[in-house]
Amino acid sequence: MKSAIAACGALFAAVASLSAMPEGAHAAAPYPSKPLTLVIGFPPGGGADQVGRVYANALARQLKQPVVVENRPGAGSTIGASLAARAAADGYTLYLGNSSVMGSDSALYKVDYTPDNFVPVAQLTTGPMVLIANAKLGLKSVQDLIDRAKRKPGTINVASSGNGVITHLAAVEFMTLAGVKLMHIPFKGGAAAAQSVAAGDTDISFATAPSAKAVIDTGKVVALAVTSGQPSRLLPYPPISQTVPGYDLSNWWGVFAPKGTPPEVLDTLFKASNEVLALNDVQQGMAAGYEEVTPSASLEAFGAFARKEGGKGLRLAKESLDTAN
After folding, report:
1. How far is C-alpha 57 from the geometric centre of its chain's CA atoms?
2. Which domains does the chain have, with CATH numbers?
3. Each residue of 102-129: pLDDT tens digit?
4. Which of 146, 120, 124 is nearest to 133 (CA)?
């Protein structure tokens, strides 16, 4: 009897001690245990949206949780980046970004974040932009564009998807290396910028490939070149570097998480991201948007790459201040 009473007393004490434990001491639910959100700082229809939706759909299958795409365009891509930077660091809010969030944003906008507010998780893709021109201009090559821009400095305008984003920085690098002056006109997203070239409201644009292809197919726009230093496997246009030595500026997309996200969550996201990038349907979906899948070797490798690219973007952003509108 005494032993039974003693056993009951021990059981009671154990239960009481468990109930008195702080909330964080209980086993946490395995990650992920609820839907994730992928924030994209551009509107639907452009290159970022294409990459983000292919990735989100595949990641949802891999993690067995919905991944909701939330487009938050405006102010370059800083509205979306700000939302993601202020989110809880629990792995349930991710950001689809590129070099701008690692450097140029803080140079061109009054933002409430720095690159240190983000943790690079995984690189997804790399793809050149396409230099496009309104067909009525009669430009046939990059050299034609340079010659006309030098004859009439500042009269050719260039559309971008926003101040400080990669399509603007591509124009800045072109002006620097080619020795020409262009008038910059920013839009809210790459699709709108490319459509403005097709409509004749603007003259040229360094557009992401999906945005460029959509207007090239109308016959109202011609493609002059790609922005990569080497010919593209996915696009038939010559590289700008054949005419402008040293020009090499491809765009890339990667996934970022808010600072403070637990290491084990980052590891889960990195592994899941690389697993989905190995899937045939994902590679085909990215290729349909003229993006090559380029997974990073590790979290650390992508972090180093993103910071290096951010430094390059910051340099171009400082050079672009005279052209920001």
Report:
1. 17
2. 36-127+251-320 (3.40.190.150), 129-242 (3.40.190.10)
3. 988 888 888 999 999 999 999 999 999 9
4. 146
